[in-house]
Specification:
The chain has ten helices and ten strands. The longest helix is centred in the middle third of the chain and has 16 residues. 34% of the residues lie in helices and 18% in strands. It is α/β, with parallel strands linked by helices.
């Protein structure tokens, strides 16, 4: 099967991690907002079917539950061909956004039991959205290497991937598995983002290592360039909970400084 190349999208970039809880969606949302602020035309697809958090992080909530399978019929049967009925994305902070979380109520869970169907649902959602002309489309992958990653890696042309980790060895071990999955499918990994890397003392500015930093040498650290170290701070998580990314609420703060470095590094690789 030929891999799908999205028309009118210059770069399709996955933001991924091998382990949950590393702040991958936070990185993806701020990366999208920052690239848009730098003048790029940006789209963001939340590819996590069972935990779509991107809408909440951007201040969008759907409380009403979808009726039956009405939200999924066009996705399950979609051919991926453009049509006049393609879904318009939501625009937030200059970013075009789509997520399963915009199609179903936020309290609906266990929407799909068939693992393979999850992959094709996300693929069809990707192709049925009217993205328009984009410089970059970011795909916020769920953690791990199962679905929808497996289907998207086999059926969609991805121009690169960014991996998000934390300092602990477990996160780096799991992300090495994700690295190998991208390499097997000939997707270049642009770099590594270490989130929750350290804490900056608000009084003296000293760098404090909150989490144990592994001294085990993993391929994820030796084979992939480090793009940014993002410090731990309540402002980053609070911004996500309130639907206003930290680049909007505190564009000159310590976290924003690290995020701007990441954004400019990614721009350079594009």
């Amino acid at each position: 099967m030929d891999r799908l190349k999205l028309d009118h999208v210059k770069h399709v970039i996955a933001v991924a991690s091998g382990k949950g809880g590393v702040g991958k969606s936070t990185v993806a949302v701020n990366l999208a907002v920052g690239l848009a602020a730098r003048g790029l035309r940006v789209g963001l697809l939340d590819a996590d079917v069972h935990g779509p958090n991107v809408p909440l992080m951007l201040g969008v909530r759907r409380r009403e539950a979808a009726q039956g399978w009405s939200a999924f019929v066009p996705l399950a049967s979609g051919s991926g061909a453009a049509s006049s009925s393609n879904m318009p994305p939501l625009e937030r902070y200059g970013v075009k956004v789509m997520s399963i979380g915009l199609l179903v109520g936020e309290d609906q869970t266990a929407m799909l039991d068939n693992v393979e169907t999850v992959g094709w649902l996300v693929r069809n959602l990707l192709t049925l959205v009217d993205w328009g002309e984009l410089d970059v489309l970011l795909l916020d992958f769920p953690p791990g290497t199962s679905e929808p990653q497996a289907t998207l890696l086999k059926s969609v042309v991805l121009d690169g991937a960014i991996l998000v980790v934390t300092p602990q060895d477990l996160a780096r071990l799991d992300s090495t598995r994700a690295l190998r999955a991208f390499q097997r499918n000939n997707v270049p990994v642009l770099g590594l983002v270490e989130n929750m890397s350290y804490l900056r003392c608000p009084h003296c500015g000293e760098r404090i290592e909150i989490f144990h930093r592994t001294d085990v040498e993993r391929p994820i650290s030796t084979e992939v360039p480090l793009l940014a170290e993002i410090p731990l701070d309540p402002a980053l998580s609070a911004a996500g909970d309130t639907g206003r990314p930290v680049l909007i609420t505190d564009p000159d703060g310590v976290q924003a400084e690290a995020l701007w470095a990441l954004i400019d590094a990614v721009r350079g690789r594009l």
